[in-house]
Structures are given as C-alpha cells and as structure tokens.
Amino acid sequence: MRTRSVGRARSFRDEDRLVEVEGATLAGTLTLPTGEGPWPVTLLLGGTFSDLRDADVDPRLWPGVPKRHMYAILARGLARAGIASFRFDRRGAGESTGELGVRRAEEVADAGAVWRWVRSLPECDGRAAMLGHSAGAYVLCRVALEVGQPDAAVLQGALYRSIAALLEYNYSLVRDYMRLGESEVAWVKEHSPKAYQDAMMMRAVVSAIEKREPVAAAEVDGVTATRDLSSLRYDLDLPPEDQFRHLAAPALVLHGAEDLNVPIEDAFETVRALWAAGNRDVELRVIPGANHSFQLDAEDYATRVQEKITMKNFGRPFHPLYPGVVIDYLARQLL
Fold first, then answer.
1. Distances (CA, A) of 49 to 68, 123, 243, 309, 310
2. 1, part of any domain
3. Do 322 and 223 share a structural domain?
4. Is the peptide bond before 38 cis (omega within 30 degrees of 0)?
5. Partners of 228 in the beta sheet?
6. How confident is the model over 180-190, as pLDDT tens digits?
7. How far apart are the first and last CA of the chain?
8. pTM given for the model
C-alpha cells in the first residue's frame, strides 16, 4: 500500500490505496474527513464512461473527452460531512493493472472484491454505503446480492429498460437529429463516424440482440458494417430490470430530468421494482434541468445532441443541487 496525503489544512485528505483482486491490482483514492476516525464509508462505482476513479473516461479509449471530476467533487463533499469514500480506476485503466476493457462479469467481481476490502478498512466504523452511477447502479445491485448489502445505496441515472431498448433510445436520438437536414448528417459523419454507423445500424443491432446473435451486420453507405455484441451477454442473461429486487437496503433513486442517455421514465420503473420486491425505504429525486451526469446542458436542442454525441457535455458545470442531494441523503442514513 502506498499513501499520499493532500490538503491537510482543508476538511478532507486523499490517500492512494491499492486493492488486490484476481488477476489485477486496482488503484484508487480513499478520501477521509480530517480528525480522528473511524467513519462511515461509501464505495463509488462508475458507469460505462467512468474508466477512471473520478468518473472520467480513459483517454486511450475516448481521446479528447473533457474530465467531469464527478467523484472527486462528491468524495470531498462527503468528507466534509464526515463520511469517508473510496473510488478506483477500473481494471486496466489509469493506474490499475490488468486488461483494459473488461467484461461485465469481471467488473462485478472486481467491485465485489473492493466492497469486501472497503468494509474491512480500519478507517470504516462498520457503516458502509454504495453509490452506482448509470451501469454502476446495475453493478451495485449484483454486488449487494453476491457479496453483501450496504447500509444505504444511491442509484444515479440507473437503467431499468432492456439493453436493446436502451440502444434503440440512444440511436434514435442521433437518427432524429440527422433527419433535420443534410448538414446535420454531415456533422455527425465528421465528428463521430461511430455514432453515424450505430444510428444507421440500429435495427440490425436491436434485431441481433433480440435473437441473441453475437454479431450484428448491416449495409451502411454501401459498406458492410459489423458490431460485436458478445460483451452484452452478461447483461442480456441478467437484465437490468431484474436486478433491483436484490437491493434490500434503503435507497435513493436519483435522475436528471433532461437525461439523454437513460430516459427519466426508468427512474419511476426502478422505484416500482424496489417496492415490488418489498423495499419500501426508497426516496426518488428528479433534478430538473440536469443531464445523465447531473450537469447543465446547453439550452438549445441541437447543441445538446451534438455535445452528447461527442461527450463534450462532460465539461459542463454540475447542477447546483448536485452533489448536495447525495451528501444529504447519505448523511441522514449513515450519521
């Protein structure tokens, strides 16, 4: 273990920690309140575009995408409230070892190992929560089932609908934008050839998923384009809508009203699923004007779609209510 303390004059300190998991070493940051511990601790689990510990993308996979620093901001706010937290680079990303681009089964296994480690920390007073953003909410539910329940959970921008429905929603957004005119089509082709191909392949991809075919293929501008769908098998075998029944802990379901990645309707379905499974200690908060990352997007539709396609919206300011709404909830549950 290597330790680096910063900001001792402030109300938090960051320490580098290493967690050994099967086949890799995961590097992360333990953010602690100042003063004497132990404290409650929260494990922060990132989503699809959260390769790095602060919920940022790995530049090797997504060059040029701005950094959000979402989990660094959240961790420091939690520390000021008296709650420690741990966040880590995904396997193969950042300072973590292993193969980059892990499958969901490995992601769940890694998160489960980190959850055991977090609960055993001498800095932890026995009270521990988990927060999962986007796909991280899915991972959170699997870890709760396979390893152990948290004392509280936060589900940020959680997906309820099927994988096929999610892709259809996102691809349709691009297709609808391109229907505005030839200049919009040219813009998508220039700035994100993959988004253009995905949008044009939408029906083929959805059909292949529904048929459980490992590869989707379609003609795009006279060329055969393919998509490997094998990485989706875990999520298809264990669909998102079925995972919320595994979470028995008090939960906050948090969603941005202007989410263009996971529709707002999924938040209501998530609450219904938790209730149906017998978990009635559930709070729902919808932040008006916030996107999938709880940031403030541009007001005009065209710019919002363009920045979603290029992920430039990662550089947008966070909504004034975030992360205070999360900190308030976890403080009420853990302190």
1. 11, 29, 21, 13, 12
2. no
3. no
4. yes
5. 215
6. 999 999 999 99
7. 28
8. 0.94
